[in-house]
């Protein structure tokens, strides 16, 4: 009888563990610059079977034991205005989130998916801050039309991975998340 | 005194002068199950230049109800033609499709004041010669009937510095039953959205192309504002649906579009107000129209080699399909259609092959 109860309890624990892992999926997303591009990445992740948690205003104490932080960089004056923050506050927020993520042993992936259309003074300001934060950098071609990402990645010694389109970030994302243990 | 009186009379005459009438040339296909008017949803529009035709494609099978809006701005041809392509080719097989090809008929009655684009564009359709009209951005002042204010405060209370924007339909949502004719038009659209229990709506627009006047310099300028084309604006409730649709759009057509979220502080636009004032999820799409580029001397809004009408109208039409699919995936309530021209088919020849 005791063994039977133990087996049932063990099965329950396993079930909780397995379903917990499936739900958490180990990725948290936040925009760097408050553009909606992070939602595009969330959808690419969903198609990979990864249910990334998107928190537009993620703070250092908002990390929930995830393995990977993905921040999608693109400046949006409208988005910053809606969030009620300015560019300095956004940079400070990301510095503190990335520091907390590092302390927690998480990996940080910086992405830029908007191509040339999502470059400009505000975005470039965030890019300069974001690249050195990255363990890896994933950039949709066109975004690096002037070599800014290439130069910053070289300076910060960060691996930069190009993708032809947002949709085609799927392959590199799968490889990165596999390497970092989120995907089997 | 006399001069003031004469000026007043002249102003009154100019405002009450009969506006040029615009009679839309829409040639419904077999999929259209009912033709209505906006005045069926808001009676005061009847017998005015603000009334417009509504085409219903009802499968008779329960499902989602989608709304396509063309002609919000008369000088944004591709949205109107995407709506024509739907009305003249599509059959709903689950759910219901509602299409308004020329929602601001008054704006269609005016010549383009932005770039003086030719008024009528000849194409060869399935039934022979046909002309696509090209109108203006705003309601005809004669139809508005009141002078433009110095500044315009719209129904949600947002103030625009340019009073002429009081005649811009896409600044007057959610409209006003007892407002100006343009505000009443927006009100009528909202009444339709509620009466037809619209689940999702796409308002189809055009913007400047991403190109600048060739100067021999690099065409990129940080902070430049030519960024609206190839954009899908989504109400916050539709953001994830929009993201799914854009990924499918890229896979289907190779067209990469930006996602933007409605700005909740900039009021009066369809994508925020339809979503905020009804259960419908609302979207607004933008294609690149050479006719919007002020630097072009003689823009070809039909056959431009880089931005042909087939590309632009195809963009809106395919995007609508992908929004319908993504909405169906998200909610389980589907709008399924057949007869939508494939993007590659559209791009393979003149647009008239798909118009009656």
What does this structure look like?
The complex is a heterodimer of chains A (184) and B (356). By secondary structure, chain A is an alpha/beta fold. In chain A, 47% of the residues lie in helices and 16% in strands. Chain A has a single domain, classed as Rossmann fold, CATH 3.40.50. Chain A has seven helices and six strands; from the N terminus they run αβαββααβαβαβα. In chain A, α6 (148-156) links the parallel β5 (136-140) and β6. With 356 residues, chain B is of the alpha/beta class. Chain B has an eight-stranded mixed β-sheet, sandwiched between helices. Chain B has a two-stranded antiparallel ribbon with strand order 4-14. In chain B, α6 crosses α8 (309-331). The chains are: A alpha/beta (184), B alpha/beta (356). The A-B interface holds A 36-37, 39-40, 42-44, 47, 78-79, 81-82, 114-121, 124, 145-146, 165-167 and B 210, 220, 222-224, 227, 230, 234, 239-240, 242-244, 246-247, 250-251, 256, 258-261, 263-266.
Helices and strands in order:
The complex is a heterodimer of chains A (184) and B (356).
Chain A: H1 2-24, E1 27-32, H2 37-47, E2 53-54, E3 68-73, H3 77-83, H4 87-103, E4 107-112, H5 121-130, E5 136-140, H6 148-156, E6 159-163, H7 170-179
Parallel strand pairs in A: 1-2, 1-3, 3-4, 4-5, 5-6
Chain B: H1 2-16, E1 34-37, E2 53-58, E3 65-69, H2 77-89, E4 91-94, E5 96-100, H3 105-108, E6 120-125, E7 128-133, H4 141-144, E8 152-153, E9 159-160, H5 181-195, E10 200-207, E11 231-234, H6 239-253, E12 258-261, H7 270-276, E13 281-288, H8 309-331, E14 336-338, H9 343-347
Parallel strand pairs in B: 3-5, 3-10, 10-13, 11-12
Antiparallel strand pairs in B: 1-2, 2-5, 4-14, 6-7, 8-9, 11-13
């Amino acid at each position: 009888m005791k063994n039977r109860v133990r087996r049932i309890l063990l099965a329950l624990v396993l079930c909780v563990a397995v379903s917990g892992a499936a739900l958490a999926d180990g990725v948290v997303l936040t925009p760097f610059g408050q553009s909606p591009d992070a939602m595009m990445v969330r959808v690419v992740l969903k198609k990979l079977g990864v249910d990334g948690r998107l928190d537009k205003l993620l703070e250092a104490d908002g990390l929930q034991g995830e393995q990977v932080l993905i921040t999608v960089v693109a400046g949006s004056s409208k988005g910053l205005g809606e969030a009620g923050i300015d560019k300095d506050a956004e940079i400070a927020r990301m510095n503190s989130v990335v520091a907390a993520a590092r302390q927690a042993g998480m990996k940080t992936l910086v992405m830029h998916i908007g191509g040339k259309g999502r470059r400009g003074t505000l975005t470039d300001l965030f890019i300069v801050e974001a690249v050195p934060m990255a363990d890896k950098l994933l950039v949709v071609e066109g975004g690096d039309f002037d070599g800014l990402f290439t130069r910053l990645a070289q300076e910060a010694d960060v691996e930069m991975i190009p993708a032809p389109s947002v949709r085609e970030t799927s392959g590199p994302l799968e490889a990165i998340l596999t390497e970092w243990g989120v995907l089997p | 005194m006399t001069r003031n009186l004469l000026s007043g009379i002249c102003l009154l005459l100019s405002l009450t002068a009969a506006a040029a009438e615009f009679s839309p040339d829409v040639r419904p296909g077999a999929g259209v199950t009912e033709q209505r008017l906006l005045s069926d949803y808001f009676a005061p529009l009847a017998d005015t230049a603000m009334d417009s035709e509504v085409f219903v494609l009802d499968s008779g099978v329960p499902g989602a109800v989608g709304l396509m809006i063309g002609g919000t701005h008369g000088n944004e041809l591709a949205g109107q033609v995407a709506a024509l392509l739907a009305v003249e080719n599509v059959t709903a097989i689950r759910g219901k499709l509602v299409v308004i090809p020329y929602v601001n008929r008054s704006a269609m009655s005016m010549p383009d004041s932005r770039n003086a684009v030719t008024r009528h564009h000849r194409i060869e359709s399935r039934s022979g010669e046909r002309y696509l009209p090209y109108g203006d951005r705003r309601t005809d002042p004669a139809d508005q009937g009141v002078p433009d204010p110095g500044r315009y405060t719209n129904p949600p209370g947002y103030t625009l510095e340019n009073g002429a924007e009081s005649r811009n339909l896409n600044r007057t949502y959610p409209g006003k039953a007892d407002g100006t004719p343009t505000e009443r038009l927006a009100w009528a659209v909202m009444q339709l959205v509620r009466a037809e229990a619209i689940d999702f709506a796409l308002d189809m627009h055009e913007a400047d192309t991403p190109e600048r006047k060739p100067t021999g310099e690099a065409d990129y300028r940080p902070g430049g504002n030519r960024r609206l084309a190839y954009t899908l604006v989504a109400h916050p409730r539709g953001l994830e649906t929009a993201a799914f649709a854009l990924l499918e759009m890229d896979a289907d057509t190779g067209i990469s579009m930006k996602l933007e979220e409605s700005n909740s502080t900039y009021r009066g636009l369809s994508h925020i107000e339809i979503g905020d004032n009804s259960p419908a999820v609302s979207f607004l799409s933008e294609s690149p129209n050479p006719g919007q580029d002020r630097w072009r001397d003689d823009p070809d809004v039909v056959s431009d080699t880089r931005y042909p009408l087939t590309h632009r109208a195809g963009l809106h039409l395919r995007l609508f399909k992908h929004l319908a699919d993504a909405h169906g995936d998200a909610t389980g309530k589907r709008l399924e259609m057949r007869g939508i021209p494939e993007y590659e088919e559209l791009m393979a020849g003149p647009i008239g092959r798909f118009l009656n």
